[in-house]
Structure formats: structure tokens, C-alpha cells
Design a protein that fits this description.
- By secondary structure, this protein is an alpha/beta fold.
- It has 2 domains: about 160 residues, Response regulator (Rossmann fold); about 250 residues, Rossmann fold (3-Layer(aba) Sandwich).
- It is about 40% helix and about 15% strand.
- Helix 7 crosses helix 17 and helix 11 runs parallel beside helix 12.
């Protein structure tokens, strides 16, 4: 019998628990939950005593897993791994939870909570006490796991520094008494909760990429492109993509995504090297990427020197696999600073001759300044027939090949009004398919498989 079961979408947390619990832990990756609790629990062997659910599982997913686990393994204990937030009472009222544990809780706190919850489950009559033979078998499995770890020390993750957060106390069900000498399954928090979502650490040898989206004029579809690139990349690297709205005066990414950010670019640029503080200022979108919103007022643009924007982009590149930057139209100072950091430049234009000629001038200037990114992608937007110009004519005017042709589509407007990336609002839309081609130029693994497409997309089909 496996003592503990973890269902989680966080590879970082999975590594920590594997190191802590060894062979006593069985893990089901959260991707299986996409297809329902039954599909996820078909991966479970034996009968776990305690299930840890999260981080990065939704309320509905957690509730469905608890219902299915309770039916299969009567008496099992449940720990939800998430921060203490304002909606915690709704979670406790809506499902049977015995404790809530911060994903940043120390190893000693985690072990203590597991031991006390196991003891409480036995004392309350929900589970039988483990036999000595079962304990000895677990010990032997742990010893074998330690031997393999010594042979391949690189397999284990490095221990997280610091002791941030604790378990959150959850009262026992009405009518049940806590075991004498224990404080119940949870303990009171001693520190302020950390941000709600864990940003996976950058692995060694993994190169961060900075994708700068630029256009010579406004109204080319630059912001829509940046949003959908971020959503597509986050399908492959969830919580490892950050979208920076560097249109410092009139950026509207927050409005296009129906976000109400508490902080903006004006706040983030002053943080410096304090990574913890920076994480707390980011806004997370439901499609698994983070947003640094533009300042809420044009006057605040004066508080964002171009040099500080460059520092911020470099800092974010140490934290995220992809940094996507939406820029001010044209080649202002902030845009030039962003392009200095870019590994990929995505240049967006439409089918009109003035826009195409403006992009040509933009390329000529960037060549003179030696600021053309090593990877260049040209997107021709709003492509349609009977406009008096063909894509091949556009390429001739620009003086560079067209990499992606995006047809004009009302779906882009509908998605923006709904606050949803186009590639998730209507996966069959021709413009959405074209934008996915652009995503795959940057990340070839971004193939829209069923488990990668966000639940909103599946609901729309």
C-alpha cells in the first residue's frame, strides 16, 4: 500500500515531495485530470491513506477528485496544497478537506502535518493503524530509493531555500473530536501567505527567450498577436511565460484579457533584484501565463525610463522560459530597448501600402542600428481578397518574406470582447490556426493537442 498520493501540475512541488517521501509517494501528473477524475485515478496503484491535491488544480478539479477518491478509498485523508486565500472558506464548505498546506511549507512542516493527519484518521476510526510489516516494507522501499539517488544524484531536485509559509488550520467536522495531545490535522499560519501560483524555476542549461512584438503603426493587430503567442507558449510551458505590456502610455492588454491588475509596469520596474517582491506584483491569467500590465494612466509613463525597462526584461528572463513583450507602435526608445534584449522579433503589419512601407523603413533603421533580432518573424495581418494587393506584393514592398499570413476574422474581435485569447475562444477559426503557426515558429512543440488546449477552448467546440 502506498501511503501518500500526489495529484499536481507543479513539477517543482512533485520533485520536493519525491525527495521528502521517497517510495511512500505515488504521483499522478495533473495533465490526466484534464480528461476527468476517473482517467487520473486509473493511474493509481494500491490504496493511499492521504491524498495531496495541488498546487495548480482548480476548485472543480479538486472537488471531483475528492468525490472519486472518497468512493474508491473510504476513510482517505485530504490535504489541499494551495495558499490561504479569501476563497478558502468556499473550498472547505464545498468539499471534505482535512488540511490546507502551503506549497512553500518547509519539509518539517509537511512531514509533521502528514503524521498528525494519519494519527487523527486512525484515532477517529476512519483508517486502521498500519501494521509493523507495512512500516518495515516502506522503510525498505525508502532505502532502495536512497541507493538509486546516490547512484544518480542529479535526479533529485535541490532543496528549496527558506521556510516560507505553513499549513493552514482546518477544523474537524462537526461532532468529531480531535485526538488528545494533537492540534488537529493543521496548524495556524505563522507568516504571510506567498503569491497564489508557483513559477517553475528555470532549469540549468535552459535558455530563456525574449519575444518582442513590434509594428510600425497602431491598429496592426500587434497586441492580439502578443496575447495569443503568450497563451500558445503557456500551453507547453504553463506558468513559465510572462507577457509585458511595454506600450507605456496606451497599452491595453489588461482590457483585452478582462484583467483588473492591482499593479502595473510602473510598480514592477522599481523592484530591482527582489524576485519574491516581483512575483507578488505579477497578474496571473487563467491560461497559465503572467501579465505585467501597462500603467493605468499615460502620465505614469514618465516613471518608466527605457533603461529600467531593459533591466526588467533581463530580470524576468532569469525567472521565465519565455518573456513576451508588446511594444509601443513605431521605434520609440522603449521599443528599441526591448529589441536590444530580443531573441525573437515578431513584426506585424497589414495589407495597406502605407503600413508595408513603414515596416520597410523600420527594418532599414534596425539594420543600421544592428538591432535586428537573430530570429525574425513577419506576420501579415488582416489578409483578404479583393484589396488590390496580394501577399507576394506585400513581401516585395517590405523587402522581406512573409512568414505567417493571418486572414481577417471577426473571431478576433469576439475573442477580445470576451477577454479570451483567440486561439482558445475558437480553435477552428482560420486566424487562430494561422497564429498557432506563428507560435510553432518559436516553440515547435506547441502542437494543439487536446490536453494542452485550455478548457475554454474545449467548451467552445
Amino acid at each position: 500500500m502506498t501511503s501518500y498520493l500526489l495529484v499536481s501540475r507543479s513539477a517543482e512541488y512533485e520533485s520536493r515531495l519525491r525527495r521528502l517521501l521517497g517510495a511512500r509517494l505515488q504521483v499522478v501528473p495533473g495533465e490526466y485530470v484534464t480528461f476527468g477524475p476517473d482517467a487520473a485515478l486509473r493511474q493509481v496503484d494500491g490504496g493511499p491513506r492521504i491524498a495531496l491535491l495541488g498546487p495548480l488544480l482548480s476548485y472543480e478539479e479538486t472537488k471531483a477528485l475528492i468525490a472519486e477518491l472518497s468512493e474508491r478509498y473510504p476513510g482517505i485523508g485530504f490535504i489541499v496544497v494551495r495558499e490561504q486565500r479569501s476563497d478558502l472558506e468556499d473550498w472547505v464548505d464545498g468539499m471534505e478537506i482535512h488540511a490546507v498546506l502551503s506549497p512553500e511549507a518547509s519539509d518539517s512542516t509537511t512531514e509533521s502535518l502528514l503524521e498528525r493527519l494519519d494519527e487523527w484518521l486512525v484515532t477517529s476510526g476512519r483508517l486502521r493503524e498500519r501494521t509493523q510489516a507495512e512500516i518495515d516494507a516502506e522503510t525498505r522501499r525508502d532505502e532502495i530509493a536512497d541507493v538509486f539517488a546516490m547512484l544518480a544524484p542529479g535526479v533529485r531536485a535541490e532543496e528549496s531555500a527558506g521556510d516560507v509559509g505553513d499549513a493552514v488550520r482546518v477544523e474537524p467536522e462537526q461532532g468529531e473530536d480531535e485526538a488528545e495531545g494533537t492540534a488537529g490535522p493543521g496548524v495556524e499560519p505563522e507568516t504571510e501567505p506567498e503569491p497564489d501560483w508557483v513559477i517553475p524555476p528555470m532549469g540549468r542549461g535552459i535558455r530563456s527567450e525574449v519575444v518582442v512584438v513590434a509594428a510600425p503603426k497602431g491598429g496592426q493587430g500587434k497586441t492580439t498577436t502578443a496575447i495569443n503567442l503568450s497563451a500558445g507558449l503557456a500551453e507547453v510551458h504553463p506558468n513559465s511565460v510572462v507577457l509585458v505590456d511595454a506600450d507605456v502610455q496606451f497599452g491595453d492588454i489588461a482590457n483585452a484579457l478582462d484583467l483588473r491588475p492591482q499593479y502595473s509596469l510602473a510598480d514592477v520596474v522599481g523592484v530591482g533584484d527582489d524576485e519574491v517582491a516581483m512575483k507578488a506584483l505579477l497578474t496571473r491569467h487563467d491560461d497559465d501565463f503572467f501579465v505585467v500590465a501597462a500603467p493605468p494612466s499615460p502620465e505614469l509613463a514618465d516613471e518608466i525610463p527605457p533603461s529600467e525597462l531593459g533591466v526588467l526584461i533581463r530580470r524576468l528572463a532569469t525567472m521565465f522560459r519565455y518573456v513576451v513583450v508588446d511594444t509601443t507602435p513605431g521605434l520609440g526608445e522603449h521599443t528599441l530597448v526591448a529589441l536590444e534584449q530580443a531573441t525573437d522579433g515578431v513584426f506585424v503589419t497589414n495589407m495597406t501600402v502605407p503600413s508595408l512601407r513603414a515596416l520597410r523603413k523600420e527594418f532599414e533603421l534596425l539594420v543600421d542600428l544592428d538591432l535586428v533580432p537573430s530570429n525574425r518573424h513577419v506576420i501579415l495581418n488582416f489578409v483578404e481578397k479583393n484589396t488590390g494587393i496580394l501577399p507576394k506584393d506585400a513581401a516585395r514592398i517590405i523587402g522581406a518574406p512573409i512568414d505567417v499570413e493571418v486572414p481577417r476574422s471577426i473571431g478576433a474581435v469576439l475573442a477580445s470582447n470576451a477577454g479570451v485569447p483567440l486561439i482558445h475562444n475558437d480553435v477552428r477559426d482560420p486566424a487562430a490556426k494561422a497564429i498557432r503557426t506563428a507560435v510553432q515558429r518559436i516553440e515547435p512543440a506547441a502542437v494543439p493537442t487536446r490536453k494542452r488546449i485550455h478548457r475554454k477552448a474545449r467548451a467552445a467546440q
